[in-house]
Amino acid sequence: MCGGSSVRIKQTGVFGWDQFQFYNDRECKTCGALWRPAIPRWGAGLMIGLGIVVLVGAALTMLVIPANEKHVRDLVWGFSGLAAAYSIGYGVLALLGVCGQLGIRRGPRTPA
Ligand SMILES: [Zn+2]
Model's pTM, two decimal places? Predict the structure, then answer.
């Protein structure tokens, strides 16, 4: 980001549902800048694909759950629906440039 060649991956531990990030934070060893890398386009595509896989998986699961087990079916749909919606939604929003973008957490140290 700042052009420093020595960068290390920093685990900041912010992986809440609303703080998902594709890569861990990066910290420049030279100037101390700390930033959150943007999600790559293939990463966003991957999340959309993942969501679709989850939906297909849920649909296939329906084939093996007896029709009278309504609460189980609802549970599976509920969980997969949420996971898929989140994954696909995040991927689409990332492609649109809404989320998952580069974020500067701490700027470069200015030389004293
Ligand atoms: Zn730097």
Answer: 0.80
Dist. CA 4 → ligand 1 center (Å): 4
Whole-number average pLDDT of the chain = 88
CA of 32 from ligand 1 middle (Å) equals 6
Query: Can you tell me the distance from the alpha carbon of 83 to that of 97, in angstroms, rounded to the nearest whole number?
Result: 21
Query: What is the percent of the chain with per-residue pLDDT over 90, rounded to a whole number?
Result: 56
* Cβ < 5 A residues, ion ligand 1: 2, 4, 28, 30-31, 33
pLDDT of residue 66: 93
Asked whether 84 and 16 are in contact (CB, 8 A), the reply is no
Q: Return the domain boundaries, the chain.
A: 7-106
